[in-house]
Design goal:
The chain has 137 residues and is an all-alpha fold. It has one domain (4-131). Helix content is 77%, strand content 0%. The chain has 8 helices and no strands. It has helices at 4-26, 30-33, 43-63, 66-69, 71-89, 93-96, 98-122, 126-131. The longest helix is centred in the C-terminal third of the chain and has 25 residues, at 98-122.
Length: 137
């Protein structure tokens, strides 16, 4: 059986994964290192960085009490899987480069792990995590 400590580590890895995207978008030349053409406006670098930072913060704080806040990383896992499948099926790599493929594969792995492990670690069902009706609140 998966314990809360393992789930906490996985959620923190997800948080760090988002934080790393933050740095790629905000460090000058960070996108170019991954073969992505710099956008014409800084807005298109700041917007995804802000979204990544919000997710990183929520995941980090949620990891401290998964029994109470397990719905956040669970939903984040679902969003990651949807993003990964969409990115891989729509072949964004032709316009964004291999960066999107690497990002999608990492998101797919983290998303599936969160969806699989959180119900076992928290003792809640998938439905309870989806609806935030956790029995450990």
């Amino acid at each position: 059986m998966v314990n809360l400590k393992t789930a906490k580590i996985i959620v923190r890895v997800a948080s760090l994964y988002n934080a790393s995207a933050l740095f790629v978008f905000l460090i000058p030349g960070g996108l170019a290192l991954f073969g992505v053409k710099e956008p014409y406006s800084v807005f298109w670098q700041v917007l995804p960085a802000l979204l990544a930072s919000y997710a990183a913060i929520v995941l980090f704080f949620s990891s401290n009490n998964l029994g109470r806040f397990g719905s956040f990383p669970y939903w984040n896992g679902i969003i990651r899987v949807i993003f990964a499948v969409t990115a891989l099926l729509l072949d964004f790599k032709t316009s964004v480069g291999m960066f999107i493929g690497l990002l999608a594969i990492g998101d797919l792995l983290i998303g599936v792990l969160c969806i699989y492990i959180l119900p076992k670690a928290t003792g809640n069902t998938h439905l309870q995590l989806l609806t935030n009706s956790l029995n450990n609140q």
